[in-house]
């Protein structure tokens, strides 16, 4: 017999049943591996039938819920492991290396991603009122927590709407609002609040990131970036690194290399043309930095992806 109280056993059983239903619905609405954008704005489903190699990418503000399988995300030297019923919140665009480490054809990796909507967070913060000061050491733009019953229930109701498109037009915005609300009430709520703190450090770093994303092909002067963020150069450098585990210059390089990779894989550009398009003047420098990020020179890495059928 179990030594656990009956209410604890019942709660665990309820979570298991909801997880099983969520996995079934995601599996039915994907069908094949990859990222699937759904008819519900801001909701994407991810499926993978086998473990992946580490992939360098840029995560945008989002809530990621793993339903089945296991994944890890690496931010600088930090490793974040998340599996079924853990959720990851990304509060601003950051460069990561992600890797699916547990997935099989019989039990694929299943995940859903919900875009974090700052406007919605702001509306909820007005209703929730001020919170206690955030604890020190919480400046990272990436954080991980365990799902609770209320958040899982809201997520499941949102995914159910994929099979009821007529209802989704009315009910999906309400479910998305509740999900944002549940995250704000949860253990990571204080850290998500900083995303929308009026003219706070996180907002200023986010402003610098948006400028970098808009002008990543141009030469970077940290003084110009700091002025746009209304910070000193030293303060921006410190806050930027605290949030993203990288520097503005390194961040710009990753944006350039990610876009060059897309141009080669999707649009078929040669390496030299892609390098020039994203702002590199030296093909040899581009090749060195590309290899450092993706593990192989541009032509070889792109050819391997095509042979593997990933593009």
CATH superfamily of the largest domain: Regulatory protein AraC
N- to C-terminal separation?
A: 52 Å
Instruction: Specify Rg, calculated over alpha carbons.
Output: 21 Å
CATH architecture of the largest domain: Sandwich
- Which CATH class of the largest domain is shown? Mainly Beta
> How many strand units?
10
Strand content of the residues, in percent? 15-25%
N-to-C SSE series?
Answer: HEEEEEEEEEHEHHHHHHHHHH
On the 0-100 scale, what is the average pLDDT? 86
* CATH level 3 topology of the largest domain: Jelly Rolls
Poorly predicted regions are none
Tell me, briefly, the overall form: globular
Structural class: alpha+beta
**Overall tally of structural domains:** 3
- Strand order of the biggest β-sheet: 1-2-9-4-7-10
Summarize the structure.
The chain is an alpha+beta fold and 311 residues long. It has helices at 6-28, 118-128, 149-160, 165-185, 189-193, 201-214, 222-228, 233-244, 248-266, 271-277, 283-294, 298-307, and strands spanning 34-37, 43-48, 55-59, 62-68, 70-75, 78-83, 86-90, 94-102, 109-115, 142-146. It starts with 5 loop residues before the first helix and ends with a helix.
